[in-house]
Every structure is written in C-alpha cells, then in structure tokens.
Amino acid sequence: MTAPARAAVRPGLVVVDKAGGMTSHDVVARVRRLVGTRKVGHAGTLDPMATGVLVLGVDRATRLLGHLMLTDKGYDATIRLGVATTTDDAEGEVTATTSAVGLDEATVRAVLGEFVGDLQQVPTAVSAIKVDGKRAYQRVRDGEQVELQPRAVTVHELVVHEVRHEGDTVDVDVSLRCTSGTYVRAIARDAGARLGVGGHLTALRRTAVGPYGLDVARTLDQLADDVVAGGVVLPIAEAARAAFPARDLDEQAAADVRVGRSLDLELAGTTAVFAPSGEFLALYEPRGPVARPVAVFV
User: Fold this and answer.
1) Fewer CB near the last or first residue (10 Å), C or N of the chain?
2) What region holds the tRNA pseudouridine synthase II TruB subfamily 2 C-terminal domain (predicted)?
3) Catalytic pick from 17, 26, 47, 72?
4) What pLDDT, in 10s, does the model give residues 61-78?
5) CA within 13 Å, CB half, 139
6) Which domains does the chain have, with CATH numbers?
C-alpha cells in the first residue's frame, strides 16, 4: 500500500509539548524526520526531566528563534524541601538531607515570595552555559569544579499553590512567569538554602514561551498525525504576528524592506513588518528617527 503523500512544509514554527525523558535535541531530530528537512532548530532548551512547551523553527523561520529566545516564559514546578542534589533537580545525586518537618507553610510561602522581582541568580552548575568555550554541564561530567557568575533575571510572578508535608520533606507546587535565562532549579536550590534544609525540583513543566502556550502545543505523536495534512507548522507570518507588534506596509515601503533599507517609521520596539499581501517581510527596530532592519526574511 502506498503511503499518503506528505504536504509541502512551509517555513514556520512547530510548538511541541515535550515529553519527559527526551532531550531538546531528541525532539529536533524527530521533527526533522516528520517535516522532511534538516533545517530545524529550537528556541531554548528544556532539560530531559522537564515537559511542556518547546518552540522549534522550520526552514527560514529558524532565524526567528534568536529573537523568541528573549521572550518571557511560564512554568509549573514542584519543589522538594529537605533534599539537595548535584543538579538541583531529581536527576542528580543526593548531596544532603535535612528534615523539613519543622517548616510551617507561612514560612515557606514567605521565603518563596522573596524570589519575585529582579534577582542576581547563580545558574545551576549543570547548565548549558559555556565556560571558556565548553558547556558547564560537560565540565561537571568531566569531574571539574564549576563556579558560575550571578546573572540578572526577573521573576514577574511566583504563585505558591500547595505546601505538603511528605514524611521528612516538604513538597511545594508553584507557578511562575520569568525572563528568559531564569533557572527554576536555582530557585528551588536557593529557597531550600534560605530555609536551611536544601531543595531541588521534582517536576518542571514549561507552560509558555512568549505568546505560545500549551493550548497550541502538540505532542510528537499528535504532530506525526498532523504531517500528512500539512498542519504541523504554524506559518511564519502567523508566528511573527503572534510574537511581535505588527505593521502593515504599502507597496513602496515593502519594496524598500526587500532590499534592507531604513524606513521612515516610528516604532516602539522590535516590530514585524508585512507586505500588502500579508507576506511577512522582516523584523525592524527603532534607531533614532528611523526604523532599521534586524532581520529580513525575503
């Protein structure tokens, strides 16, 4: 029996609901096979333990990813107080255990409330940050001691849903919205340290990357079912309108964009510009009295 013909894949984004146990590269490899092109990349990794929203770019939409990586993200997480690990999550080896029986809910909520706002955060040692050209996690695997410098991050909101005593430990379910580059594992680690009992993540689910949430995310199995119909990719024009302020241009301005010229436009920030036909042309940003191209996609 002949397999159904695969619809031509247009440039755009694929919003995946990643399963636990997979690396982000595993997901990229699977989507490459599904869409029939190697030109697939992702906008920020998710740890193997984590699930949830992973945004991938297909074809020339991969050039959008660097800009999407700068957007805010949302997470649901469970923090376990009373146990510290080498990776600040459940995949690491336990380094210390301290009874958290004496912690009361009000104290836990108060300490976690201190992690809202502008923070100087030391990333977890097994992060993907490069140290002298080598990923920090690889240095840790090679037996090296890694000390990372604090980084400025912002947690816009952290909501504590439930505080549960589980034997000698305390589990805390939280939701947060934060800037890109924030390590939720580091919040678990630092909250445990402030409470004097240690802490790590036992569950992490990314609920949003910029405007793309779980409501538009698809599991890999669902995406495989979508491929034949050509519905796996969010077209690049729709993706750009969802992620950035949009400006529709006349024919003359669109012609100027196609050759990378500046535009006599007032913009509030990075803006997606479109031809009269609705074709996505470029990202522009304000530079003095004019708007200049950040990236042209035609």
Assistant:
1) N
2) 244-297
3) 47
4) 888 888 877 789 999 999
5) 18
6) 12-71+211-236 (3.30.2350.10), 74-202 (3.30.2350.10), 244-296 (2.30.130.10)
